[in-house]
Design goal:
The protein has about 260 residues and is an alpha/beta fold. It has helices spanning about 45-50, 75-80, 100, 125-135, 155-165, 185-200, 210-215, 240-245, and strands spanning about 5-15, 20-30, 35-40, 60-65, 70, 85, 110, 120, 170-175, 200-205, 220-225, 225-230. The strands form 3 sheets. It has a 6-stranded mixed sheet, sandwiched between helices. The chain has a 4-stranded antiparallel sheet with strand order 2-1-4-5, with helices on one face. It has a two-stranded antiparallel ribbon with strand order 7-8. Helix 5 (about 155-165) runs parallel beside helix 6.
C-alpha cells in the first residue's frame, strides 16, 4: 500500500486584485522526500509557500497535511501540525544566542504551578536541548553563548534550519536557504537538508540554484505565471528541460 503523502495541495488558486498569483496548482510531498519548487520571480512560489504555511488563505483549492484539511487554518494551526518555514530573511534575533532563538515564543519556564508571568526561565535546559539538536544534525557552532549577529551567513542559516527542525515533525519549508552564501556554507546547508530527509521529514525547497536542487531534491516542480508547467526528477540529463519550463520556451505548457 502506498503511504499517504505528508502534504497534498489540490488546484490551489489565489488572486491579489487583478493579479493571478496561483492558478490551479497541485502537488504532493511524501515523508522523507525533498520537493524543489522552481520558477522565475513572480512565478507564484512565495505565494504557494505562504498558503501552505497558513499565512495566505486560498481563494479555491485545498491543502491537506497528514490527511487533515488545513485549507482554512491559520499559521499557528499549521505550525501545530508540525510544519515549520524558514524564510529567506531567516527571522532571527541578532541580539540573542542560538538557544534563545530556538525557543523564542516557546520558552521553557517553571515551576508549572506558578502563574505564567511569575515562572523562572529554564536557560540551562533550553541550552542543553539546543546543543543536543545541533549535535544530532552535526551542526558545529564556534560558541553557543555568542549572539547570532557574530556568526557567519552559513552558521546563521544553520541556526534557522535547526530551529525549524526542533519543532517540526511533518514538513520543513526552506525558502532560498543558500541565497548569498559561499560554497562551503552552502554545502553545510545542503547537508542539513539531507539529514532532514534521512530523519523522515518532508521538505519543500524553494531555490534558484539548479546545482543545489540536483544535489538534494527527489523531484522538481516548475511554476510559471502561477501555474505548474512541468515536473520531473532533477538530473543533469533533463537540466535543459527544466530551464525551458522556467523561461517558458516553446513547447512547454501547463500540466
Amino acid at each position: 500500500m502506498t503511504e499517504r503523502p505528508v502534504l497534498q495541495v489540490h488546484e490551489a488558486s489565489k488572486r491579489f486584485g487583478a493579479v493571478v498569483a496561483l492558478d490551479g496548482v497541485s502537488l504532493h510531498v511524501a515523508r522523507g522526500e525533498v520537493l524543489a519548487l522552481l520558477g522565475d520571480n513572480g512565478a507564484g512560489k512565495s505565494t504557494l509557500v505562504k498558503a501552505i504555511s497558513g499565512v495566505h488563505r486560498l481563494d479555491s483549492g485545498s491543502i491537506v497535511l497528514d490527511g487533515e484539511d488545513v485549507t482554512d487554518a491559520g499559521a499557528m494551526a499549521v505550525r501545530a501540525h508540525g510544519v515549520e518555514t524558514v524564510y529567506q530573511d531567516l527571522a532571527l534575533f541578532d541580539n540573542l544566542d542560538p538557544a534563545a532563538n530556538f525557543f523564542a515564543g516557546r520558552e521553557l519556564a517553571g515551576p508549572s504551578w506558578l502563574p505564567r508571568g511569575l515562572r523562572f526561565m529554564r536557560h540551562r535546559q533550553m541550552a542543553d536541548r539546543t546543543r543536543e539538536l545541533l549535535e544530532r544534525l552535526q551542526v558545529s557552532l564556534p560558541d553557543l553563548d555568542a549572539t547570532v549577529a557574530l556568526m557567519s551567513g552559513g552558521q546563521r542559516q544553520a541556526v534557522a534550519v535547526a530551529r525549524a527542525v526542533a519543532f517540526s515533525s511533518t514538513l520543513v519549508i526552506l525558502d532560498e536557504p543558500t541565497a548569498a552564501l559561499g560554497l562551503r556554507e552552502s554545502a553545510r546547508v545542503l547537508d542539513l537538508v539531507r539529514r532532514l530527509k534521512e530523519s523522515g521529514v518532508a521538505v519543500v525547497l524553494v531555490s534558484h540554484s539548479m546545482d543545489h536542487v540536483m544535489a538534494v531534491a527527489d523531484r522538481a516542480l516548475v511554476l510559471r505565471r502561477g501555474r505548474a508547467v512541468g515536473e520531473t526528477v532533477p538530473t543533469a540529463d533533463n537540466h535543459a528541460q527544466l530551464v525551458a519550463w522556467i523561461v517558458g520556451a516553446a513547447g512547454s505548457r501547463p500540466l
